[in-house]
What does this fold into?
Amino acid sequence: MIADLLEIGMLVCFMAAWPMSTVKLWRSRTAKGVSLGFMVVIEIGYACGMASKFASGNVSYVIFFYAFNFSLVALNIALYLRNLRYDAEREGRHSDRRGDRWILRLIAIRYAFHEAGRLWSIRPRPPSLSPIPRNDQQGRGVELGARGGPLDAMY
It folds into this structure.
């Protein structure tokens, strides 16, 4: 019983944040500054939480809080996709053909998986991909990862 109440407290705190995000997405009409990957990971988390309730046989009123939070995040994802279309229209990348909407959705889904993979990755970014030049001890400019550079021994 106490575990259910604590779980509800956690879900209510999360539930309080999503309407603010929804209002911001609705008013801003831009997808900039919003991480679709983050929202997809949260959706997966809520789905796993609901599945764990069903798998354990401990289905109680807590499932309604999970479902409500899941629907709030789904609304945010829908608004993100709408705002992505608005951004494309503002930048002149949108035509009136119906197929363009599907292309934008596919791009958004691909970006979500890319972001989720980036969030789950524990490998450091290879320094050779860094565009920022660094200086060695003698003051010469060297590119990270270049032959003879200070980080060659690491990779």
Remarks:
- The two ends are 53 Å apart (CA to CA).
- The first strand starts at residue 134 and ends at 135.
- Residues 2-123 form one domain.
- The longest helix spans residues 62-90.
